[in-house]
Amino acid sequence: MAQTDVDSRNAQFWDELCGSGLARSLGITENTPESLQKFDHAYMGMYPYLQPYVTDEDLAGRKVMEIGLGYGTLGQLIASRGCLYHGLDIAPGPVAMMRYRLEFLGQDLGDRIRQGSALEIPWPDASFDCVYSIGCLHHTGNLPRAVAEVHRVLVPGGKAIVMLYHRHSLRQVIQIPVRYVRDRLSGRRRFASFGEAARAYYDTNAQGEAAPHTDVVSRAQVRQSLFRQFSRVRIDSQNFDTYVLLRGRIVIPRERFLNNLARVLGTDLNIVATK
Ligand SMILES: C[S@@+](CC[C@H](N)C(=O)[O-])C[C@H]1O[C@@H](n2cnc3c(N)ncnc32)[C@H](O)[C@@H]1O
After folding, report:
1. Whole-prediction pTM value?
2. Does the residue 234 lie in any domain?
3. Which GO terms describe its molecular function (predicted)?
4. Nearest CA to ligand 1 atom 11
5. Whose CA is nearest to atom 13 of ligand 1?
6. Does 197 map to a domain?
């Protein structure tokens, strides 16, 4: 697919805010401050390991950018840490949501929340002390370029905090192939190819369609190739969606695996890289 096609399909697909399924499951139908608080509580409950990536950083007075805004939970947390928050997303929906949220924080936004691509970050070199991007760059269609762009806009010594999907996760190695074979054997062929079925395992919209593009990466690829330009790289495997059922009841919830199996075979790699 040509890059312009990936970009326009991403802008359309992600206009439905990432997290809309969670919002629906919570009965959220409009975005009042109370319902966003309810959403954020549920989001942080699902991904509790994300919070320290924000609260352990000294962000006060720093210039910080987030790429890939979604429903805005993390962005609001970052912006509330006393930094000069900037946001970038290819789709209009997440941009509007972040503006809406930050207006409640009483922030004078100017043009700090922009619609645009991670592949051409619309800020000059060395603009930011810190760049956050959780679950976004692997959707761009050109991951090496997206990481190079993050490197470009960081000041020397600046930090990138990036989540990418893990190639050697339980999800990749077992769950996706098993589900695909099971669907084929039972005559349910919902997706045209294995690749599309794999993408749908990660991200679907309300119609059940898969995200337009998704890459997965290994730790070695992160260190030796994608983040090679950075002086220091730390990688944490996190997130898990497996639980144990007995007679239709969850006897071991996914949360019990977050501090053990997920640290090895987790769905996501959270990368902290210093320029
Ligand atoms: C899976 S969502 C993640 C949202 C949020 N960070 C979270 O963790 O909930 C991916 C986000 O990346 C954005 N995105 C996809 N491709 C992009 C691109 N080329 N440039 C900027 N943002 C992009 C989407 O619009 C979407 O908001």
Report:
1. 0.96
2. yes
3. S-adenosylmethionine-dependent methyltransferase activity
4. 68
5. 68
6. no
pLDDT digits (tens, 9 = 90+) for 102-120: 998 888 888 999 999 999 9
CA–CA dist 117, 88 (Å, integer):
7
d(CA 266, CA 252): 17
The tens digit of pLDDT for each residue in 216-260 reads: 999 999 999 999 999 999 999 999 987 777 778 887 888 888 998
Pocket test for ligand 1, best of 13, 14, 163 (most atoms within 8 A of CB): 14
Whether 91 lines ligand 1, by a CB cut-off of 6 Å, is: yes
**Which of 135, 148, 140, 171 has the alpha carbon at shortest distance from 50?**
135
Alpha-carbon distance values, 169 to 162, 206, 235, 272 (Å):
17, 25, 14, 19
89 ligand 1 Cβ < 6 A: yes
Residue whose CB lies within 8 A of the most ligand 1 atoms, among 18, 76, 133, 216, for a mutation test: 18
Which domain covers residue 7, as residue numbers?
Answer: 3-166+212-274
